[in-house]
Fold this protein.
Amino acid sequence: MHVIRPVQDTDLAQLTELGELSGMAAGRAHRMPVGRASLEQAVAASLDAFAAAVSEPGAQTYLFVLARLDDGTIDGCASLQAQAGAGSACFAFRRHVLRQISADLEMAHEMRALTMCSELSSYSHLVGRYLRPGMDAQAAAMLARAPLLYAAAAPQRFASNFIASFPGLPDSPFWHAVGRNFFERSLEDVETLFGGARCHPAVVEMMPHFPIYLDLMPIAAQAAVGQADAASRPFLRALMAEGFQGGGYAGLFDGGAVLHAASADLSCFARKTDTRLALARDGDDDVAHQMITAPHEAGFRVVLGGPSGQVSASALNALGLAPGHYAACVPL
Amino acid sequence: MSAPQSRMVVRPAAAGDLDALLSLAREAGTGMTTFKADRAMLAQRLEIACSSFAGTAGMADADYVFVLEDCSNGRVAGISAIKGAVGLDQAFYNYRIDTVIHASGELGLYTRLQMLHLSNDMTGATELCSLFLHPDYRNGNNGKLLSKARLLFLAQFPELGGDRVFAEMRGYQDEQGRSPFYDALGRHFFKIDFDSADDLTSCGRKSFIAELMPRQPLYVCYLPEAARAVIGDVHRNTVPARRLLEQEGLHYAGLIDIFDAGPVLEARLGDLRVMRDSALVEVGEAPEAVPAPPGLVCNLERDSFRVIERGHAGGGALALEPWQQRALNAQTGARVRHYPMAPRQGSNPAKANRP
């Protein structure tokens, strides 16, 4: 069983190991920070963000870890950016349809299209999830969704709209059909150039300036739009259950899934109830039904518990609460 | 089969040519956009042609239809035409190929790409079209006579043409008659097969093009290799026609047909070879028969315009045999225009005019 909590600087060694375990190169979009230098920077930035008295979203990135209740082992991490554009712009493809009609021929067509846009820049952005292999679906759900409980506890730090980005298919056919023609390089090389960012002005200079007719692309490229890589799919499922929608946007380079939602659509905002906590008995159903969080911004923690607020002793301890106290609960 | 010394003349089409043109159109089959075997359409076209030659047609309608007639038997052996100005009532569309550069100096990135933009650039330009020669007459210089007669007409009556002249060449099709360019692009938007789309435009039903075709500029790199490869390529049967027009001073400048990506060959009117190389000459007695290089001769009448094949060795009067004088309606002392069939040595307008 796990707790979700903000990162601490004592987590650095474990996160470095976790980064190595992920097998990812440093500076890849939508992935956890990798390498000692990046992680030091990310941890420092996160500590500053949590400590700052923020009255409106800016260039803050909040880093959360998933840690075991028993021995504190870190099994995963995830980030929540207050603004996807982080002070400049966040570019993605907006997915839409172009419809044309010929009255003369009594014929119409609808062509699926992609247009580069920066309207997501002001959205808050869930990104950079990594979960140690072998963890179960509940751990994935917790990692993906629990940061939103922090946003619900401290709404002034975040936008009222959220997106969640995912890495797309490996060796994405979408990259080969679109982006590769404009950069004349591998995606790896381009990611290295941009350091994993999507807000560099060169993105606008290099990428297509006009809507793309998706239906003209090779089938494999079409199918890659809105996909997530295998490791990300449990997160994608969890965030759909949370209330996110797909089909609206896609990643600029690999066509990866970009989910979006207004906070009013999300369980962590709209289906939160205050529940009285009780100590779980041995033999209680092990399957957790809810995310449970202490109802204030400072000392943010999230654990899993039963349907009527039953929590284990170690979970209670992690929350800093006792049986009989009230906590905010959200069904998983 | 025509005898090698057939007496051929190009003249304006007349109402009486309807039946002959109908059977010629049937012979042409589905290959020609601007010459369909439809009696009513052809009758109407001939009416417009007559008023065009008479000088009473409006600018948007002017359609100079010529026929190639075998004087020995009166048979109509071919058709060619000039549309005075296209696109003035219904928009005339092409794709234009543009080069664009995507670059970031800061990151050292530089990529060169091609784009297709929808264009109405040929609005008001003069179109050479509807060229068809019956298989029985495909010998000697009949094809050249039929095609180049139009250029002589423009040389004699430049005020009837726009400042630009063009011809759309049929694009590449594979052995099964498929157009890889249409299959990759047009088919997605028009939802009908290539022949049907072609048919509709030839019947003048062009509004569907504007209504259905992609409005967004397209990067050529989005198209499959098979489609990209044929952009600006002609149908194998059209290769001779392309060569002929390039010799006359027309060239491909990046405009293509929106359906099959066939090249548009274009030229400024003044850059046509016929403007430089044709000259007025007097009909008269010529000295001893001198071997003359092949050439064309036309009279100077608009509504009774006539063109025959006749060489002129140069300098002095041009001698015409009696049948030629009758064909041209030009006797001794009359002025006619002569045009050598082949370019002068060292002056290939196609090379001179290439940007």
Notes: The radius of gyration of chain A is 21 Å. The longest strand of chain A covers residues 92-102.
